[in-house]
Amino acid sequence: MPQLDRTLSEIVTTPSPPPDWLVPGLLHRGTMIVLAGEAGIGKSTLSYMLTVAKATGQPFLGRPLTPGRVLYFDEENSQPHFEEYLRWVWRGLGRPDPSLLDEHIKMERFSLTATAPRHFEYMAETAKEWQPELIVLDTATPACRIRDENDNGEASFAISQLRRIQLATGPLTTFLILKHAKLDHEDGRRRVRGAKIWIGATDATIFHLAVAGRPRKDGLRISRLEPEKVRAFGLRTPLRLIPSWVGEGPQKGLMLAAELEIEGAGIKAPKVSIS
Fold first, then answer.
1. Segment 28-54, tens digit of pLDDT
2. Which of 104, 110, 89, 91 is nearest to 56 (CA)?
3. Which of 74, 114, 120, 252 is most buried, by the most CB atoms less than 10 A from its CB?
4. What is the pLDDT of residue 219?
5. What angle (nearest 5°) sits at the alpha carbon of residue 42, between those of residues 36 and 45?
């Protein structure tokens, strides 16, 4: 069992070290974060872009990254969509060295479906072998083979298994769990679909939501990342994501301007790619 490497008195009397960010101001190492998005908003392609940026050391939402390994379990997207989203993201990031994708990304597509009921064991074995800095689960319900989304007991068991996998992989491994979000039209509040424990038992929740208004003529729409729950570290100020196409036809990619939302005023960050 893991033990503290220092006494409690040593912890409280030691100055706080600089945060150990995987993505500065957004994802801290060793945490488990839920990214809850509306249907069709682009949470998968946002996660693909994070994956490619991390693998190649490109900026993500204007934040610098160092190259590192990512393990991506995709139980959501068909082969044609997965391939096209990946191309868009790679082109939008400036076509970084493609060999880094093979070197730093292990993409597991529907392997958890194929290995059920041993899916958690397979996930643990794969993570231990690959030793990633980031694990992405897209999305939680099919990946964890959850039968009743609203069952807190079933969700609690899944989270405990993911924590076990995270701990076995390494104390600094970051886990990003994709979930669907829903908007309650009666009170206007956004919620993670299914059991409430997905918020309570994880370290942070970030909503990926559409900004009011129709999609633009280019088929894209502005969205935002909005923090719902933050512990010691994580996203604290909403980010507005403004996408645009780069290039044309079969060679097009996607770019994104990210703006911090501070008291209604947008503060622009550098452009990076997204869907």
1. 999 999 999 988 899 999 999 999 999
2. 104
3. 74
4. 85
5. 105
How distant, in Å, are the alpha carbons of 39, 138, 272 from that of 155? 21, 15, 34
Instruction: Read off the pLDDT of residues 189-198 as tens digits, 9 standing for 90 and up.
Output: 888 999 999 9
Tokens representing 208 are 């990926």
Quote the radius of gyration of the chain (alpha carbons, Å): 18
161-183 burial by CB neighbour count: b if 16+ within 10 A, else e? Answer: bbeebbeebeeebbbbbbbbbee
Helix (H) or strand (E) holding 252: none
Q: Which residues contact 252 (CB under 8 A, 6 or more apart)?
A: 88, 91, 245, 246
Q: Which of 66, 85, 87 is nearest to 22 (CA)?
A: 66
Query: Is the pTM higher than 0.70?
Result: yes
Whether the Cβ atoms of residue 211 and residue 238 lie closer than 8 Å to each other = no
Q: Which of 130, 271, 254, 140 is nearest to 197 (CA)?
A: 140
Q: CA–CA separation, 115 vs 117, rounded Å?
A: 6
Structural contact between residues 30 and 174, judged by C-beta atoms closer than 8 angstroms: yes
- Select from 174, 107, 118, 109 the least CA-distant residue to 145: 118
Name residue 59's amino acid.
P
Contact 166, 103 (CB under 8 A): no
Pairing of strands 239-246, 223-230: antiparallel
DSSP character for 147?
S
